[in-house]
Specification:
5 strands; Rossmann fold; single chain; alpha/beta; globular; Helicase, Ruva Protein, domain 3; 17 helices; binds adenosine-5'-diphosphate; binds magnesium ion; Methane Monooxygenase Hydroxylase, Chain G, domain 1; 5-stranded parallel beta sheet; 3 domains
Length: about 375
């Protein structure tokens, strides 16, 4: 057992004891156990300062210290034991909260294909991997892939695409992020992964397609310099669940879509589980043109605004950059209206946006993705394309 796993287990054990004593009203023993839990967690944080999930443990330490302080001060009077311990139990027995999460259909994302500009290759790949098997499973006697990895520079539509596909096939959309997978205890994270997949399987077997979406997957399931026991176990559990999806005879529709800006933080064992890997690149000319149209649809423009000119000026900009460019000038004209003192008159509208506004905004906003960075994505893709 690694030192990290040991500290983690100890901390969990002391915390459970502390809550138990706290409920029984044994303040001395409760305080003692909370202190021990804090000690173990503090050692863990010091030992692995770069550890991805430290912020959860720091939070825990703060919570316990607060409780210790309260126990000292109250002296006989019962202040919030119930509230505190029920909070703590809820946080630690992830089982309970995950059950709720997994069985409750999450809110359907309100994004459609039409909201995603360009990315024809990515859309095509998604249709082949997910949409067609859902619509005509009879055409896939040998089964279908379950894993889709979207990678590429930030702000180019990966999250948008995942939401759009969930809508397209009317799927339950379960998003995995550090907050719902950690539930404050790294040790419980592997159980949480199992719970999420278990719940998703149930829904899928009942006939409803499910998409498990892991945004910024590198931050949760990537390989980090300091690996703490719970992190490794969580990743292994995830790999196990992914393998289970591929077993023969499983013809339900449960897909795992992962997105990352840092594919190089993922290891081979992980990547291999995603049969389909799709690059979501910087927008090309036609896509940027479409983005200017989408983002300006609600804006009042003067005659001189020519989207082709703007598109030429934004080679290398991401979709998110273009959105910002449009938003910034919209805000400018609103500010102008307020500063003119005429905003109180509700019939008064902001002035129309002209081409000079757009050009100024473009000059002020540098592209957020560099050429060198793009080369890294291409290089990474070439490496894994063949495999
Ligand atoms: N292809 C696109 N079509 C339309 N809007 C886009 C596109 N790419 C990015 N955007 C805009 O940028 C924002 C961030 O995009 P997002 O999908 O979160 O990027 P990523 O997940 O690749 O980092 C979106 O909410 C959207 O407003
Ligand atoms: Mg995103």
């Amino acid at each position: 057992m690694s030192v990290a796993t040991m500290l983690e287990n100890e901390a969990m054990k002391y915390a459970a004891d502390a809550v138990k004593y706290d409920k029984m009203g044994d303040k001395d023993k409760a305080t003692e156990s909370y202190k021990r839990a804090v000690e173990q967690l503090t050692r863990l944080i010091k030992l692995y300062p770069d550890y991805t999930f430290n912020k959860f443990y720091v939070e825990k330490v703060t919570t316990y210290q607060e409780r210790i302080r309260l126990l000292k001060s109250e002296d006989g009077e019962d202040m919030g034991v119930e509230k505190f311990t029920s909070f703590e139990t809820k946080q630690t027995s992830s089982q309970q909260s995950m059950d709720e999460n997994a069985s409750e259909p999450s809110e359907k994302p309100n994004v459609n294909w039409g909201d995603v500009a360009g990315l024809e290759d990515a859309k095509k790949a998604i249709k082949e991997v997910i949409v067609y098997p859902v619509k005509r499973p009879d055409l896939f006697p040998l089964g279908w892939s379950r894993g889709l990895l979207l990678f590429g520079p930030p702000g180019c539509g990966k999250t948008l695409l995942a939401a759009a596909v969930a809508n397209e096939i009317d799927a339950q959309f379960i998003q995995i992020d550090p907050a719902n997978i950690m539930s404050k205890w790294l040790g419980a994270a592997e159980q949480n992964v199992a719970k999420i997949f278990g719940g998703a399987r149930k829904t899928a077997m009942a006939g409803k397609p499910v998409i498990i979406f892991i945004d910024e997957v590198d931050s949760i399931l990537g390989v980090h310099t300091n690996e703490v026991g719970g992190e490794v176990r969580m990743r292994n559990q995830f790999l196990k669940e992914m393998d289970g999806l591929q077993d023969k005879g499983k013809n339900y529709h449960l897909y795992v879509v992962a997105a990352t800006n840092k594919p190089w933080d993922l290891d081979w064992a992980f990547i291999r589980r995603f049969q389909k890997r799709v690059m979501v690149p910087l927008p090309d000319y036609a896509t940027r043109l479409q983005m200017f149209e989408l983002n300006s649809a609600q804006l009042e423009l003067t005659q001189d605004v020519d989207f082709h000119t703007l598109t030429q000026l934004t080679d290398g900009y991401s979709g998110s950059d273009i959105k910002d460019i449009c938003q910034v000038i919209r805000q400018e004209v609103i500010r102008e209206l307020f500063e003119s003192g005429e905003a109180d008159n509700t019939t008064k509208k902001p002035r129309k946006l002209n081409i000079a506004d757009f050009k100024r905004s473009i000059t002020n906003r540098k592209p957020s993705v560099s050429k060198e960075m793009m080369k890294e994505y291409d290089k990474w893709f070439d490496q894994f394309k063949a495999l």
